[in-house]
Each structure stands twice: as C-alpha cells, then as structure tokens.
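Protocol step 4 of 6.
Sequence for HPPR reductase (Baryphthengus martii) entered exactly as in the expression construct, tag removed. Do not edit the line below.
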Amino acid sequence: MAEEELPGVLILDVGGTHGVLENLAALLEKHFRLITMKEFLENKKEMSKKIQCVFVFERRPTIDQELLESLPNLKVIGNSGVGVDHLDLKMISNFGVKVTNTPRAVVDPTADIGVALMLASARRLVEGNVFSFPGSYLLWHIS
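Step 5 output, structure tokens:
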C-alpha cells in the first residue's frame, strides 16, 4: 500500500516531552500516515480530509468540539493510557466517532508501582532514606 493511500492519524508530535514515543511512532507508520498537530494547523483544509484517526498519547492532543468539527472523516479516537475520563465520550459519540482504549497496556507497571508504594509506606522507606544522607544522622540520634 502506498504511503498516500494510508489513512491519516493525528498525533501531537513525535518524541520530545509530550510527543508519541519514537518506537511507537514507527509502529504507527506501518499502518497510518502520521500527521502532527503542527502540520494539521499549518494546512487544516487539506489535512482535515486525510485524518481518519486521532491517537491520544498521555492525554494529548486535547479532544474538543472545535477539533472534532474540523475533522469530517474522523472515525476513531485511539487512547493510549489508563482510562478515558479525560475524553467527553458523549460529545465524541455525537460526532459518530468511536473511542478505543488500551485498558491492560499498563496493568503490570501500575501494579508494580502500587505494591512498591505500599511496601515503602509500611516499611517507612522514605523516612529511612532521609536518615541515609550525610548529616542527617543527628536527627536519628535525637529522635
């Protein structure tokens, strides 16, 4: 399939502090033509017709009514992360757009962090860490 035939997917950017991870962008490029928000804003008239999907990564780009109105061929919003509470599902469905999510994509890391936080709390690791810095031993003897 030629690149110009691939459906367009709107993303905030590739890399940087808020963009889609580069390895994830490479995976998306196998199935979609990536269109960054900057490209879209520079040429809304042409790009809006090509975009059939918006890929939301770390809650970006923000999905609002103005964006939905400017994407007449939008079919799906793919959300990567935990939950869709940042998306107005009723408004999105009024545009006939479907929403997908990756509910189990971060299950293991979330569980790991949760258990680590419980253990840290139960074993008072934060307090112990404070005492491990040079000069803090005086607090240990005083308490």
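Step 6, annotate. The helical segments are 22-29, 37-42, 44-50, 65-69, 89-94, 107-122, 125-131, 137-142.
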